[in-house]
Specification:
single chain, 233 residues, alpha+beta, Deoxyribonuclease I, Chain A, six-stranded mixed beta sheet, 6 helices
């Protein structure tokens, strides 16, 4: 099984980017910033897409795409949590829960978490809200917009919250690194600063069955400011 995480930076529409996406031959793709009309071009057999930018005529959103006889079932979602999407994933060999994430912090566009900081902010509230469904096997995948190189204190807090409910950072487990360190940047800003902002957290099933965890070179990423991450189980 291959799970791809790739913030595509304002949609996937150009042939170079589509070819890059197809080259991963993934079974499941979590794509922040994809536009809804891009999904048909990628030909998934099942997909879910959510946006929080309802005023835009062609908004970006968070897309979850399933291929190769994998299917998706939407679970109950708190729509104020921008954007956290819980799903049940099924194939003939496995069934598991995924929480797909494109985290907006206090910068939510609407809803009760807009401008909220501190212990009741979006990301901590979302982890607490969805923790009851994250039983083994489960995985959390997304662009959190913070990590070991940016808002490190918050990242350490998040890792500990996940560890308390049985999930670990797959990147750090695979690379045998402390959670405060990274060997790979997943984001390059317009000012050419580099950070690790994209993460996967898995329960025992995922951590124990990692075959490979690939992080693309941020300086070679095709038409995006984020690296693709590919987990093979």
């Amino acid at each position: 099984m291959k799970i791809l995480l790739w913030n595509c930076n304002n949609g996937i529409s150009q042939s170079r980017q589509i070819d890059c996406f197809n080259s991963f031959e993934c079974d499941l793709a979590i794509i922040p910033e994809i536009k809804e009309h891009n999904i048909e071009t990628l030909s998934p057999n099942s997909s879910v897409w959510v946006t929080n930018n309802v005023k835009n005529k062609s908004p970006k959103g968070l897309g979850i795409l399933a291929f190769n006889n994998f299917s998706l079932k939407e679970l109950s979602r708190d729509e104020d949590m921008e954007i956290f999407i819980p799903l049940k994933v099924k194939s003939k060999k496995i069934e598991f829960t995924i929480l797909a994430v494109w985290n907006f912090y206090w910068a939510c566009k609407q809803g009760r978490f807009k401008n909220v900081k501190g212990e009741d902010c979006l990301e901590w509230s979302a982890i607490r809200h969805y923790q009851s469904i994250l039983k083994d096997p489960s995985i959390v995948v997304g662009d959190w917009n913070f990590g070991p190189t940016f808002s490190q204190v918050a990242f350490v807090k998040m890792v500990k919250m996940f560890e308390e409910i049985g999930l670990k950072s797959i990147y750090h487990e695979y690379n045998e690194l402390p959670i405060t360190e990274t060997k790979n940047f997943t984001y390059k800003s317009p000012m050419k600063t580099y950070h690790h902002l994209d993460h996967m957290f898995g329960t025992e099933y995922f951590v124990d069955n990692i075959k490979n965890f690939f992080v693309g070179d941020i300086n070679e990423t095709v038409l995006s400011d984020h690296s693709p991450l590919l987990l093979e189980i």
